[in-house]
Amino acid sequence: MKKRTHQFLFLILLFTISPFSFGQKTAFIKGNVTDGKLAVEFVDVLLKNSIDSTRIAQYAVTDASGNFVLENIASGDYQLQFKLIGFKTVRKKVKIESAPISIGTITLQNDTNLLHDVVVHSQKKQIQKTDEGFIFNAVSNISQSGGTATDMLKSIPTVAVDAEGGITMRGKSPLILINGKNSAISNMDQIAASSIESIEIISNPTAKYDANAESGVINIKLKKNNQNGLNGAVVLGGGFGAKGRINSSVLLNQKTEKWNFGLGYDNRFAGRTKKINSDRTNYFIDDEHFIHQNRNDERKEGLQNLKLNIDFSPNEKNTFSFEALGNMESQDNDETLYTQVTTSANDFFSSNKRHSLELERSKVGELAFNYDKKFDDDRKNLNASITSSFNKDRENTNIDTYNYDEYQQQIDEVVFQRTHNYEHENISNAILNYTFPVSEKSIIETGYKGTFRFFNSDFESADLVNGEYVINPLASNIFKYNEQINAAYAMLNSFIGDKENPKWKYNLGLRAENVSNNGATQNNSDRFNNDYFKLFSSASLQLNLKQDEFVKIGYSKRINRPDLDDLNPFMDITDALNPHSGNPYLKPEIIHIGEISYTKDWSNYSFSTNIFYRNASNTIKQYATLQDNGVVLLMPKNIGSTVTYGLETIFSLKPIGFYDANISLTAFQQNIDASNLAQDVVRNAFSWYGKIINNFAPWKGGKLQLIGNYNSAFATPQGKRIPIYNVDMGFQQKLGSGNARLGLVVTDLFNTLESGYKNNTLLFSNNRTNKSDTRALMITFAYTFKSDFKEKLLENQFSTE
After folding, report:
1. Distance CA 542, CA 129 (A)
2. What SS3 state is found at 307?
């Protein structure tokens, strides 16, 4: 009875898919898809009836070798379509009779209009090059499973991440976007690595992108499935560093011909420790002359993300999308700081222990509405989106301070304080882009982007007096900040020569930005207002020496607007001898950037290099000032102008079948003119950083990955940061038929990752080192159901070679 039921359901399914099949002979179609060099996996192969092109008669997805088969096809006239994001759709007419058909090899061509949106589906290309940079296939990185976006970025070529999570490209902070949009998620530790599908690096942005991208753009694209049917995945992980760590991820997706529903949830919980040691000498202060500090942190971290996406495509030319993201983060930091102060004669001056318990809770919600319109001419397209991101952060800290004499006996009463910092932020974007051809060889891209930011920070400090907490008005304030940026751009893209293989390619762009921002504290002691209109131009010229070799020269004008942390005047007094604050009077940097690049591809190797030059005025740098009471205040300042020039190189190789690697190196020189500040500012500095990603396939279903990072000493205005280096390892093994896999990750294998800096000025010298429990071991287990889901949505992806 059960067997008959299955047969009956199969007949119903067959009738639904192909209503013309009964009473007719059937056949099958097979073929192969490549990009001209390598097989392409995950290509959607659609067979449509010529009479009714809205009905899909058969559907398949290419496998790891680029092969596909469509079976049980009734006789008739059809159209085959081959679709994959980042490539132009290929259409081919076929006539089905009784005999099987082999259509041979289909070659896909890159769609230059969509390259910035491409998701790398083939494991054979860990890095997908674009006209503006490259896209890193995040799911191919198995050494950071269980980590965050910050951990993932440590493995990206040309990106430097210090031990404190600071992210730079070519020595400056890049503009970071989430799904191509500005987001209230400014801390990359709020994004779990398991939710990232790809990371796009744009080294020298054109006028199409925000002008506030001095060193480039990092676009983090979150996972979203487009495979037909119901499919999903579950990932579980656990391990330990100094403390335990766990993470999990669940992904579900249902796609029909017109609708696509996706739901994802991931979390990460970890315990961490940190030790900080600092020694400072105040040269011209006799009492507080030598200051030694050591700090111990015990931290608990929690992160949860919930993501929903709904897509509706009433036809092939129109798509409506809705996305919602919810993020919850918690951090409990139990910190103990010991301070010992001696005089210039090395006599005891003071000693204290400062204990603080900091409880932070953050909630972020994001909503996005998108519309995409395609036309018969694939060079023409229209897209629009409205997004809004809300961030609510609450931080409460209780502080108690114990004072001791030279014999370490407690003196005076314990000093109790408490602080809170409540922040509310909203960032909204309205975006419209329209691309259209003006000739056979030229297209114009135009667009508008409006960015609207509202920020409110309430900081309160109170002291315990006679059993009650009394607010300290001198250390408490409310900071409000509003910003509106209205931008419009136009860019001409054209080529000279043959359409399929042009000899020259060039673009010319102009972006206009009107900025209005204002901020004020509660008592209006720090009020500022900036309104300005500026034009930003860009241009590039590319000479294609061969199909796989080109030289490119480019120029762009950019701006570096100070961010909220730079502007917020609140002073963090957790460490009373080393407070830090923002500077509401900062001016934006104006930067002129030039770049020459060369790229060459071989069958098993690829090489690209960029020579860059950057001239910035009103450079923003952190600057430390020694106060009369022995306190060193750290605050950002405009330090004059900076000229930076350097070299950036990426080399990929696959010398043998079971091994491939990616090697990157960035080196640059900085010449600083800081005549507006003290004479002890660093004038010239050379820095470099590099990384190597090694991938091994020792046996079937197994993959081993080793990633090494090295960042040289990096110049600060008054000294340098110490070098940092580490090695991460990841291993995975497929289980059974491949739907399950087991992984092992060891971060900072040799426990070498630490950060710090050394300052040496006319008034003081300071050495400081930070060491977290960066070495950790994680074990992960992943399982997928339904074959259409494939492997692309797992953070623990295997090479398909």
Report:
1. 15
2. strand
- Residue 124, pLDDT score: 42
Structure tokens at 19: 């209503």
Q: In this structure, is the dihedral angle defined by the CA atoms of residues 203, 139, 691 and 598, taken in order, positive or negative?
A: negative
8 Å CB contact between 734 and 702: yes
How far is the C-alpha of 584 from the C-alpha of 565, rounded, in Å? 10
Q: List all residues 6 or more positions away from 19 whose beta carbon is below 8 Å from its beta carbon.
A: none
Q: Which residue has the higher pLDDT, 681 or 655?
A: 655
CB 629 within 8 A of CB 619: no
pLDDT at 321: 92
Task: Please give the helix or strand (H or E) that residue 577 lies within, else none.
Answer: none
Cβ atoms within 10 Å, residue 604? 12
Q: β-pairing, 175-178 with 571-572? A: unpaired
Nearest to 565 by CA among 641, 460, 476, 455: 455
DSSP code per residue over 657-711: TTEEEEEEEEEEEEEEE-TTS-TTS--EEEEEEEEEEEEE--STTEEEEEEEEEE
- 12 pLDDT band, cuts 50/70/90, is very low
Distances in Å between the Cα of 229 and the Cα atoms of 45, 49, 51, 138, 786 are 15, 21, 25, 24, 8
Do the Cβ atoms of 483 and 515 come closer than 8 Å?
yes
Residue 645: CB atoms within 10 Å: 16
SS3 content of the chain, % helix, strand, coil (to 5): 5, 65, 30
Closest by CA position to 191, among listed 244, 153, 230: 153
Number of other residues whose CB lies within 10 A of the CB of residue 592? 14
Dump pLDDT digits (tens) for 334-380.
Answer: 999 999 999 999 999 999 999 999 999 999 999 999 999 988 887 88
- Half-sphere exposure for 733 (CA within 13 Å, toward CB): 7
The SS3 call for residue 432 is strand
d(CA 545, CA 19): 52
CA 424/CA 441 separation, integer angstroms: 48
With beta carbons less than 8 A apart as the criterion, state whether 750 and 217 touch.
Answer: no
Q: What is the pLDDT of residues 302-336, one digit of tens each?
A: 999 898 989 998 988 899 999 998 999 999 999 99
Query: Secondary structure of 168-210 in the HEC alphabet?
Result: EECCECCEEEECCECCCCCCHHHCEHHHEEEEEEECCCCCCCC
**Strand arrangement, sheet containing 632-638:** 571-572, 580-581, 632-638, 620-626
DSSP state string for 773-798: ---EEEEEEEEEESGGG-STT-SSPP
Q: Is 6 helix (H, G, I), strand (E, B) or coil?
A: helix
* Nearest residue to 505 via CA among 517, 513, 497: 497
CA-closest candidate to residue 586, choices 539, 619, 540, 608? 619
Q: State how far the Cα of 143 lies from the Cα of 730, in Å rounded to an integer.
A: 4
Minimal CA–CA distance to 632: which of 640, 641, 623?
623
pLDDT at 801: 24
Give the DSSP H/E element, type plus range, for residue 4: helix 2-17
CB neighbour list of residue 443: distance below 8 Å, 6 or more residues apart: 113, 379, 435, 436, 437, 492, 493, 494
Contacts of 135 (CB under 8 A, 6+ apart): 118, 119, 120, 127, 128, 198, 199, 200, 201
Residue 701, Ramachandran bin (φ over 0: left; ψ between -120 and 50: alpha; else beta):
left
Chain mean position to CA 290: 41
In the chain, DSSP finds a helix count (H) and a strand count (E) of 3, 45
365 vs 327: CA distance, rounded Å: 6
> Token pair for residue 129?
């090059």
- Please give the biggest Cα pair distance in the chain: 105
